[in-house]
Write a structure and sequence with these properties.
Layout lengths: L2 E7 L5 H11 L6 E8 L2 E8 L2 H8 L9 E7 L14 E2 L5 E9 L2 H10 L10 H15 L2 H10 L3 E11 L2 E9 L4 E5 L2 E5 L11 E4 L4 E6 L2 E6 L10 E2 L15 H7 L1 H9 L3 E2 L4 E2 L8 H4 L4 E6 L1 H18 L3 E5 H4 L10 E7 L5 H12 L3 E6 L5 H4 L3 E4 L12 H21 L4 H21 L2 H14 L4 E6 L4 H15 L3 E5 L15 E6 L6 H12 L4 E6 L2 H7 L1 E4 L8 H19 L18
Parallel strand pairs: 17-18, 17-19, 19-20, 20-21, 22-23, 22-24, 24-25, 25-26
Antiparallel strand pairs: 1-4, 1-10, 2-3, 2-4, 5-6, 6-7, 7-8, 8-12, 9-10, 9-11, 11-14, 12-13, 15-16
Helix pairs in contact: 3-4, 4-5, 7-13, 7-14, 9-13, 9-16, 13-19, 14-19, 15-19, 16-19, 17-18
The protein binds fructose -6-phosphate.
Fructose -6-phosphate binds next to helix 9 and helix 16.
Length: about 625
């Protein structure tokens, strides 16, 4: 989705920092990019369709280099095709105001007609340009950028994160506002910076302030003043972001996805750090989160999430029902938000999200809350909207996830779900301290087991399998019980980065339809670990084999490996934790297949990392 950066400094150029900020945001997906900077002669804009390199080529003449205030944008087209003219920033007729914007101005048509009638000419097909002209006209009247933004936003319906930069008698001015998509600000002694994501802010400060819906911020070198849309001051606390700006790099890996797959042992260890109380046979969360008083009267859990996070939610449902004996429903956030869901007393909404900014998940959470549910979030981004709007939070400590295909966030979400299930089970007395202790011991073993799964031998073996199957007609991933969602995740990973057709299915459902797909061109990956349904999945593998399908078994069940013929052997562990280990080889298999097929792994077509609009 679109990305925003902005910087205003008392002295010193901002252009390089803006472009680097846009580079850090590239992972979110975009089709054009641009910058607007304030120079003595007025506002100058450079923008280009396509990759950031196209914009950099235009900037090479150094003409915009000296500016000490500017804004930048990576656009994901909504109104108007991807093109140079539709790329942001957009300027008003006076040439003194430029704007970037994420989100949608829903009533842009009547507003545009009004401006057309007043003689304004438009250079683009975007809704954003309407906003640029509105702010520009007010600014021309009063010379007050905050007042101009306020007046324009008072007439706008929709959801947006927007930034306006202007040049007036007193020099450069910058104002931003949020009503929906995320926006964060930070400042240093001689500068103030804003971005739609914390990553571009980290080179300047690790103290970041997130704007809330309905907030405006006036950016000045060394300070940021936050008000509501009427201009009344509001207080927002800044948060320390412990991420290292280096984490946003690829290191020695060819792709972010491969780097992030390899980070999993460390991420899981960090997600467990300080949370396992083996003596008490319990889990302890920092900052008094998820205490007995909050958990004891939960009668039902409603998981809401999207995509990969939803698959973690399915696994959470097995864990919470199995260990804590609380009924759990799981639903796509995009469906939940448009139903009229029944929230019985004692319901907790469990929202799972890597970014904490997914529009559907946020809307579903808000609906559940409005109907009386309390909210627990599992989230990877401290300070994100999801975190701020939840009653209780488990942070997954994964560090920035840049690859569009979620990997480390997923396994960390599942680990967080295990911790949550243990904690609810202990609070409700359905899980004994001894049983909990057994799981805690196994959780501690995960780091080494994950390292084993990422060893060179294992990688070579999975690469060989990838070569054998990269030209398959299609893939079916099957699993049962707590590993059924792993099959869904395996299929999603493969389809999103390799563009191969892949489906995830509950293995027991094969005979009700999908088995008709089996022939020698079809690869069936069966996820099966030692546990309650292992013998059932073995029988499903036999059914596929007898119909000529190619079978690969993934998991800790030795008999499945023998039946399937091809296998990826995963270390044995508690059935409850097996999804964490079984997922990793599937991530590698997808990665190597996509690589063999020459796909753009970190930026798969049509996908954006964080879906902040509907
Ligand atoms: C798939 C993937 C997506 C996200 C989904 C939710 O690899 O990354 O399916 O899981 O868009 O995003 P978050 O977790 O940020 O809410």
């Amino acid at each position: 989705m679109c990305g925003i950066v902005g910087a205003i400094r008392s002295q010193g150029p901002v252009l390089r920092g803006l472009v680097e900020g846009l580079r850090v945001l590239e992972y979110r997906g975009y089709d054009s990019s641009g910058v607007a900077v304030v120079l003595p002669g007025g506002i100058q804009i450079a923008k280009r369709q396509g990759r950031l390199e196209n914009l950099e080529a235009v900037l090479q003449d150094g003409a915009l280099e000296a500016a000490s205030a500017g804004i930048g944008h990576t656009r994901w087209a909504t109104h108007g095709e991807p093109s140079d003219r539709n790329a942001h920033p957009h300027r008003g007729a006076s040439g003194k105001v430029a704007i970037v914007h994420n989100g949608i101005i829903e009533n842009y048509l009547p507003l545009k007609n009004e401006l057309l009638e007043a003689g304004v000419t438009f250079e683009s097909d975007t809704d954003t340009e309407v906003l640029a002209h509105m702010v520009d006209r007010e600014f021309a009247r009063t010379g007050d950028l905050s007042a101009a933004v306020r007046a324009a936003l008072a007439r706008v319906q929709g959801y947006y994160a927007m930034v306006a930069v202007a040049v007036g008698d007193a020099g450069s001015m910058m104002v931003c506002a949020r009503q929906g998509p995320p926006l964060a600000v930070a400042w240093s002694e001689d500068g103030a910076y804003l971005a739609s994501d914390v990553l571009p802010l980290l080179p300047y400060s690790n103290q970041v302030t997130f704007l809330e819906d309905g907030d405006m911020a006036v950016m000045q070198p060394g300070s940021v003043t936050i008000t509501d849309f009427s201009g009344n001051p509001v207080t927002r606390t800044s948060r320390e972001i412990e991420w290292d700006p280096e984490d946003a790099g690829k290191g020695h890996y060819p792709h972010y996805m491969l780097k992030e797959i390899h980070e999993q042992p460390g991420v899981i260890a960090r997600t467990l750090e300080g949370r396992l109380d083996e003596k008490a046979g319990d889990v302890v969360f920092e900052n008094d989160q998820l205490q007995d008083a909050f958990l004891a009267d939960i009668s039902r859990v409603q998981v809401v999430a999207c995509g990969t996070a939803l698959h973690a939610g399915y696994i959470a449902s097995y864990l919470i029902e199995g260990l804590a004996r609380v009924p759990v429903d799981v639903e796509f956030a995009s469906e939940f938000r448009y139903r009229d869901p029944i929230i019985v007393p004692g319901t907790v909404a469990l929202a799972i999200s890597q970014s904490g900014e997914t529009a559907d998940t946020l809307a579903a959470t808000r609906l559940a809350k409005a109907k009386g549910a309390r909210v627990i979030s599992i989230c990877n981004v401290p300070g994100s909207s999801q975190v701020r709007e939840s009653d209780q939070v488990i942070l997954t400590r994964g560090g920035p996830e840049i690859g569009v295909a979620s990997t480390k966030a997923f396994t960390a979400q599942v680990v967080a779900a295990v911790l949550l299930a243990i904690r609810i089970g202990r609070a409700k007395g359905t899980l004994s301290a001894d049983d909990a202790r057994g799981l805690l011991v196994e959780l501690r073993m995960l780091r080494n087991q994950l390292e084993e799964l990422l060893s060179e031998n294992m990688r070579t073996h999975i690469k060989d399998l990838a070569r054998r199957h990269a030209a398959a007609k299609g893939f079916l991933f099957i699993g049962r019980g707590v590993n059924y969602p792993v099959a869904l995740e395996g299929a999603l990973k493969l389809k999103e980065i390799s563009y191969m057709h892949a489906e995830g299915y509950a293995a027991g459902e094969m005979k009700h339809g999908p088995i008709a797909l089996i022939d020698p061109g079809m690869t069936v990956v069966a996820v099966n670990s030692i546990g309650r349904v292992a013998d059932k999945v073995r029988a499903n593998i036999e059914q596929v084999k007898s119909r000529g399908g190619e079978t690969v078994s993934v998991g800790s069940d030795p008999e499945s490996h023998e039946i399937a013929g091809q296998s990826i052997k995963v270390p044995a562990c508690s059935e409850w934790l097996s999804p964490i280990l079984n997922t990793v080889p599937l991530q590698l298999l997808s990665y190597y297949i996509a690589d063999l097929r020459g796909c753009d792994i970190d930026k798969p077509r049509n996908l954006a990392k964080s879906v902040t609009v509907e």
